[in-house]
Design a protein that fits this description.
Number of helices: 11
Radius of gyration: 20 Å
Number of strands: 13
Strand content: 15-25%
Length: 357
């Protein structure tokens, strides 16, 4: 599996030598290039700390957090479950670095995290079968397909839905097909499963932004975003509706910090945030299932400025399903557990097989 990241020693940091003693570009809008800088430097520090503590990723995250908090362009930084480092720059832009724990074959073990003290349960908001769902179109938005599933495992969920007696029309989008504009069409479906990596205030799309060491300024980076995406993507990154994030991957017992990461290119994940969901049209005819880490989060100390759950609920869906504890908190969700929720509990999933008539 190709891994993007940075190598040890002097080669760590794709842009390290180019960025030394350089300040982020100034102008009327925040510098997105500054986001790339902090992500690159954070990953370098994380891998260095991992090498020193024999791969204790959680410890390395906390050590890296202290370094991030000391940076002059960082307004604030916090750790989440010793897996995420969530950063707000003084420009107002936000980003996230995280550790993605994988199995020996490179598949993610969690849908956005790396370790859970206990497993969240599938919870719903709304009354089962209180409404008759007349729209029989179903969308599986599987932005993390190639990271979670092998041997066409997603077909089991499709088979369950298509074999129901109510005549469902199932559409499956995988990986790069899961763009952020597709989310604007959720209102056209009676049931939507969002199957991806998640955070309390964001979830991953299937879009990646790839850059190389020729990108040495904010103007060049913004041009790359427009070339690979669109002007709208750039605008939404600057507004906070979209967010660029990065992950380091590693499996249990594997010296991932010694891997020869590709130093010539970096691929950043494109996430949608709660701000993006806030702009959606009403979802009054739709059931939403957030099959991702932190999808049921609605309370934390200190609180996040927005939560995916509450943003979806503000759109008045028929029901919203997410993974949560009984105290309003959520956490990392094991991929195996999430698969069970999508298949073994098909009779209980948002009342879909009951309320569709």
């Amino acid at each position: 599996m190709k891994k993007f990241g940075l190598v040890l020693g002097e080669k760590w940091g794709l842009y390290q030598k180019k960025w030394d003693n350089k300040k982020a570009a100034k102008g009327p809008t925040p510098s997105l290039f500054e986001v790339v800088q902090i992500l690159d430097s954070t990953q370098s520090k994380f891998l260095a700390y991992s090498a020193l503590n024999n791969g204790n990723a959680q410890q390395a995250i906390m050590q890296t957090l202290s370094w991030v908090q000391s940076q002059p362009n960082v307004q604030s930084a916090r750790a989440l479950d010793s897996i995420y480092i969530m950063v707000t720059l003084k420009s107002g832009l936000q980003t996230t670095f995280s550790f993605d724990k994988t199995d020996s074959a490179g598949f993610s073990l969690f849908k956005g995290g790396g370790k859970a003290s206990k497993e969240p349960i599938l919870s719903h908001n709304g009354i089962l079968s209180n409404n008759t769902i007349t729209n029989k179109n179903v969308l599986i938005y599987c932005a993390g397909c190639k990271e979670f599933y092998k041997n066409n495992e997603t077909q089991s969920t499709v088979d369950i839905l298509q074999s129901s007696p109510v005549g469902l029309n199932v559409t499956v989008l995988k990986d790069e097909q899961c763009t952020y504009p597709i989310i604007n069409t959720f209102q056209n479906y009676g049931f939507v499963i969002i199957d991806t990596h998640g955070a309390p205030d964001a979830f991953m799309t299937g879009t990646k932004i790839t850059l190389d060491n020729t990108i040495v300024s904010d103007d060049l980076f913004k041009a790359r975003i427009i070339a690979q995406g669109s002007q709208d993507m750039l605008d939404k990154l600057l507004s906070g509706e979209l967010r660029l994030v990065n992950r380091a991957k590693g499996s249990k017992g594997e010296p991932y910090w010694q891997k020869a990461y590709n130093k010539d290119t970096v691929s950043l994940d494109l996430n949608v945030t709660s701000k993006f969901i806030d702009q959606l049209s009403p979802l009054s005819g739709t059931v939403i299932m957030g099959s991702m880490c932190y999808s049921g989060e609605e309370a934390d100390i200190p609180p996040f400025p927005g939560y995916i759950k509450t943003s979806f609920l503000s759109k008045n869906p028929i029901s919203y399903y997410g993974f949560a504890f009984d105290n309003g908190l959520s956490g990392p969700v094991n991929v195996y557990f999430a698969k069970q929720m999508e298949t073994l509990y098909q009779g209980d999933l948002p009342g879909i097989l009951i309320a569709l008539k």
